[in-house]
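Before going further, learn to read the protein records used in this course. The integers have meaning only within a learned vocabulary of local backbone shapes. To see the layout at work, look at the sequence and tokens printed below.
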Amino acid sequence: MKWTKAKIKEAQKGMKIYKHSQGDGWHYINDRFECWNNGKCFSIGDTSEGCILLLCQLWCRLNNVDFKDIYVRAYPNEDSDWLNNLADDYLQYTNIPQTLSRPVLIEDLHDVNYHSLADVLGDLSGEDVVVARGRVLKGR
């Protein structure tokens, strides 16, 4: 089937959302399309990378760790300002788990090729965090 701009606009009305859960690793989180001026259209669905970073940011916040600081330690020459928008951009695509597990987050970071960040997160002290009924219960 040839994708026209009209067909893509119609498809995006019912765009599928594939919410990320901790431990899912890399996957598409939505079906998005883009068309070039020559009329050729292609899928550019967003991936779970931002969701994984959002969960890591939440784990860090709940363990009193500055996520931006560890990101900069892992990638000293990279811009980190975009991390301020993780919740705005990815919360709708992310299932917040009952327990945030650092070892699972580290596996997910490796799956999306954030190896240096996974290493820095692995070197930190901190514990899994239980999130229940809007409250955070540490150490369970």
